[in-house]
Write a structure and sequence with these properties.
The chain is built from eight helices and eleven strands. With about 280 residues, it is of the alpha/beta class. The chain has two domains: about 90 residues, Alpha-Beta Plaits (2-Layer Sandwich), CATH 3.30.70.20; about 140 residues, Rossmann fold (3-Layer(aba) Sandwich), CATH 3.40.50. It is globular and about 70 Å long. It binds iron/sulfur cluster. The site of iron/sulfur cluster has 13 residues, from α3.
């Protein structure tokens, strides 16, 4: 007993100071692929290696448009293995309020042999296609949420068909290291007590009704965070006989958190982004 007490005291505080201090992710951990766009000479090998369609290219008569969609990317690293112009970073804070922000496009002059020549436009995120009026409604909703909820928030998690990789990372949020409760954020067992829905997995057709009912059981105002590549877009599963695709195919999503799975820092970043505390 005294041994345990001694070890606890000797260990000291293990809780991260994030977001006051930067995320301390290991150098080995997988994050966003980084493309050396000015020196990239041919996207085709990397595009062919990408199993999810996150990296794609469309050729016009003289130009090539390369697109990287982090909402689909599983951080598998196959593109980096196929092409030295791509390297896997450990950047994990990628949450976005609008799905379009997850997509980066690069344009090249196309050579007759199918390789690239000059870089026509550097990597840039796609413009948000949502009308301005919708953003105004979103801002009003956020202000109302801040007024009603103050600094405390209850979260209900729904596994809509995930492999449970995201659940393992979500469980880490309650560990002493990440300690979600220091923000006044708590997981609850009932959607009737929840202000935020954390949804993982591509929405399987069998879970569609349960997800809708869970959302409808929550009191307004309510927030929805789509977790992982599957939650953002359907991920490796996409849309098929068993999967409807991303969470936004079923209920409105406020924040998208890319990753496969997103680590606890990425999840914290997404949750704090949803409540404007990131
Ligand atoms: S890391 Fe994997 S999923 Fe992401 S773009 Fe590269 S090959 Fe595609």
């Amino acid at each position: 007993m005294f041994d345990i007490l001694y070890h606890s005291l000797a260990t000291g505080v293990v809780t991260t100071d994030y977001p006051k201090t930067p995320a301390q992710t290991s150098r080995q951990s997988r994050g966003r692929p980084e493309i050396d766009a000015p020196n990239w000479k041919d996207a085709r090998a990397a595009v062919a290696a990408c199993p999810t369609g996150a990296l794609s290219c469309t050729d016009g008569p003289e130009t090539r448009r390369v697109t990287l969609d982090l909402g689909k990317c599983t951080f598998c690293g196959f593109c980096a293995e196929a092409d030295p112009a791509i390297r896997m970073s450990n950047v994990c804070e990628l949450a976005a309020r609008h799905k379009a922000e997850l997509t980066t496009t690069i344009q090249y002059q196309l050579a007759p042999d199918g390789t690239h020549q000059a870089l026509l436009s550097p990597p840039r995120a796609a413009a948000d296609p949502r009308p301005a009026a919708l953003d105004a409604v979103g801002a009003q909703l956020k202000a109302r949420i801040a007024k009603v909820l103050g600094r405390s928030l209850h979260i209900r998690e729904v596994d809509a068909g995930s492999c449970n990789g995201c659940e393992v990372e979500i469980a880490g949020l309650n560990s002493p290291v990440y300690d979600l409760e220091r923000f006044g954020l708590h997981f609850v067992a009932s959607p009737r007590h929840a202000d935020m829905l954390l949804v993982t997995g591509p929405v399987s057709r069998n879970m569609e009704l349960a997800l809708r009912k869970t959302y409808e059981a929550m009191p307004a105002p309510r927030l929805v965070v789509a977790v992982g590549a599957c939650g953002c877009s359907g991920g490796i599963f996409g849309t098929n006989y068993a999967s409807l695709g991303g969470v936004d195919k079923v209920i409105p999503v406020d924040v998208y958190v890319p990753g496969c799975p997103p680590n606890p820092y990425a999840l914290l970043h997404g949750i704090l982004t949803a409540i404007d505390r990131g």
